[in-house]
Description:
Elements: H1 17-31, H2 41-45
Amino acid sequence: MEIKPVKRGIGPAGKVLKDMLEEKERLFQQTGYYYGLKELRLAKEDPLRL
């Protein structure tokens, strides 16, 4: 009996990066906050650094 490795993502509970990014964008659209920040000062001042 051969056990195949399970592909898991890099995030919590094995989430894949694509799912984590989609969740982040969805939450930002719903709340207007980005990880607790209302104003993204760096994005306004120098968007290429972000």
